[in-house]
Design goal:
single chain; 154 residues; alpha+beta; 5-stranded mixed sheet; two-stranded antiparallel sheet; 17% helix
């Protein structure tokens, strides 16, 4: 049976090194998500912590977009983004827990490329051992005379 759509969507809004969790009822539109994003992007807490994120004053200063997935997998080499129509309802357009990205407008009014850094889930100290070769498997501790025996050479 098909899963029922959620009553409220949780969406991850990403830009630069920032992730904002947005929640919206299933009957919301992309325009209402943009209003929520504007509230988050114009907060004073964000201004104090992230100098990289451009200053926005209205929903006309940016667009929400999502990564175009190739056969269900994101193309990590050169990601492409699709701008979402503000009048579209989110039900049927987005999935719960989907990542959305902010595409800011430049001073000339044209959309700038998406700037997002995918941070690692591991600490930098934990990443180093993961890059090295795995340790050799432990040697069996059972006595040599027990267990299966190898056939003698012919």
């Amino acid at each position: 049976p098909a899963r029922a759509p959620p009553k409220a969507y949780i969406l991850l809004l990403k830009t630069h090194r920032l992730t904002v969790f947005l929640s919206a009822p299933h009957n919301s539109t992309v325009a209402s998500l943009k209003a929520e994003a504007l509230s988050a992007l114009s907060s004073t807490v964000l201004r104090d912590a992230n100098e990289d994120v451009p200053i926005v004053t209205s929903t006309d200063d940016f667009e929400l977009c999502r990564a175009i997935k190739d056969r269900g997998k994101q193309n990590a080499a050169v990601p492409a983004y699709e701008v979402l129509d503000p009048d579209s309802p989110i039900r049927g357009l987005l999935n719960n827990w989907e990542e959305l990205f902010v595409q800011f407008r430049g001073k000339n009014g044209k959309l700038m490329p998406v700037q997002v850094s995918q941070t690692s889930l591991l600490d930098e100290e934990e990443e180093e051992p993961a890059r090295r070769a795995p340790p050799p498997p432990p040697q069996p501790t059972t006595p040599v005379g027990k267990g299966k025996r190898k056939a003698p050479p012919e």
